[in-house]
Design brief:
This protein has 13 helices and 14 strands. With about 425 residues, it is an alpha+beta fold. The strands form four sheets. Strands 6, 7, 8, 9, 10 and 11 form a six-stranded antiparallel beta sheet that branches. Helix 8 packs antiparallel against helix 10 and helix 8 packs parallel to helix 11. The chain is globular.
């Protein structure tokens, strides 16, 4: 559960000497050349550096005039959501399972349709869970689904669920345990995230859409970059050690994060208007995320074989982890080809079949995607299950022996730990 992760990280921070204060209302932040004053609960706290993770309504982002309008991002979506009880496994609703090794109930379930998507997140789907709750929600492109103030949030949610019989059957008997929430447009972004003696974290800098659940990934990247920069600054005796210029890598990371998120989500919404384009887009998303994960796992394997923690600091040489991966140039070209096809499709310059074919052909041309593991770029390709060790073994064997040279030498250049 997310709160378990949050509690663990809080406990680690306290273990290392962090003073934790709850229910603290920050009312003002003043940045000076020599220190920072934070006004909270009627008191003023003097500190050397200020990190703002307060999110959308950040006092500092507004005061420093960092916040930009939502139109800076292409993604345009709003949300309706709540927590519920009484959610049955979706696997019991549908007549035919897609043949996965895990139930659909064992993960986060998405239903995509033209102009939006549902999420269903069961909290009771692992053996240590004590929760009977589930998060259910709906993301909508307001250009396709303008907000209907004549309906309640719940009524609007189910007016759309009614259009999809299996979705309605899944959700029809759930009971909300908190008020339904309906938002206006969700997106926000900022002009920059660092300044003298302060920075705003990734979630304060921007938000795009929850489609690919990148929030924690982006946060861990941001913490990794920021903690190294802060440790360097606090260990320095230079009078300018907290100057914005020394924290520019963090600003660049946040820009790269939001640009990638906006690209992926905005194009996903375009692809949702047709099953054929959504099928092709999902294959592309799977390929790029799999190999980005391999880039991170490569560092872990290299650490396991050497015990050298410095290996992870190599990521700090990248604007964002993955941007120096050996497949990144080809991936960017594939992104552009796929995006061009989707734009032509949505602008009426290409029909859905032709657009999907362009996308699939682009996938077939990627020699860094192993075809014997999964038929990338074939319209009838569906599920691939990397929880199966034999499939993982095939991928690693291909990578170390038969992959293109730049992939073999730049991605699979690690030793596997001995079997336990």
């Amino acid at each position: 559960m997310r709160e378990d992760v949050d509690q663990y990280l809080l406990d680690v921070a306290k273990k290392y000497g962090c003073d934790y204060v709850d229910n603290t209302n920050i009312t003002d932040v003043n940045i000076y050349d020599t220190h920072v004053d934070v006004s909270a609960n009627g008191d003023t706290i003097k500190c050397e550096y200020y990190v703002d993770s307060s999110g959308r309504n950040s006092i500092l982002a507004k005061k420093m005039e960092y916040r930009k309008g939502p139109d800076e991002l292409e993604t345009n979506s709003r949300s309706i959501f709540t927590h519920v009880t009484g959610l049955p496994p979706y696997d019991k609703i549908i007549s035919k399972s897609p043949g996965q090794s895990k139930r659909l109930h064992d993960g986060t379930l998405h239903h995509a349709f033209p102009g939006g998507w549902f999420w269903v997140i069961p909290f009771d789907n692992y053996h240590r869970s004590g929760s009977k709750l589930a998060s259910v929600g709906l993301q909508l492109d307001p250009r396709c689904f303008p907000k209907n103030d004549e309906m309640t949030a719940e009524e609007e949610f189910f007016s759309i669920a009614e259009q999809y019989p299996s979705v309605l059957a899944h959700l029809n008997d759930v009971v909300a345990v908190q008020p339904w929430i309906r938002t206006d447009r969700l997106q926000y972004s900022s002009s920059r995230s660092v300044g003298n003696r302060h920075f705003i974290s990734n979630n304060t800098y921007s938000f795009t859409d929850p489609l690919y659940s990148n929030g924690l990934i982006n946060t861990f990247e941001s913490v990794f970059y920021a903690s190294n920069l802060l440790l360097n600054a606090f260990s320095s005796t230079d009078s300018s050690r907290f100057h914005a210029k020394d924290f520019e890598p963090l600003d660049e990371l946040h820009k790269e994060q939001v640009q990638l998120a906006d690209f992926m989500v905005a194009n996903a919404y375009k692809a949702m208007h047709s099953f054929d384009t959504w099928n092709a887009w999902t294959q592309m998303w799977l390929g790029q995320v799999l190999f980005n994960d391999l880039w991170l796992q490569r560092a872990c394997f290299q650490y396991f074989s050497t015990g050298d923690k410095q290996r992870f600091l190599e990521f700090l040489k990248e604007p964002k982890p993955g941007m120096l991966a050996p497949f990144n140039g080809e991936k960017k070209e594939m992104f552009q080809s796929v995006a061009n096809a989707l734009n032509k499709y949505r602008n009426g310059e290409m029909n859905e079949n032709d657009a999907a074919n362009v996308m699939l052909q682009s996938l077939q041309q990627q020699d860094w995607l192993p075809q014997h593991i999964y038929k990338w770029g074939h319209a009838d390709s569906r599920h691939v299950d990397f929880s199966k060790m034999e499939l993982v073994g095939m991928l690693l064997d291909w990578g170390m022996k038969d992959s293109p040279e730049h992939i073999r030498e730049g991605l699979f250049d690690f030793e596997l730990p001995p079997p336990s």
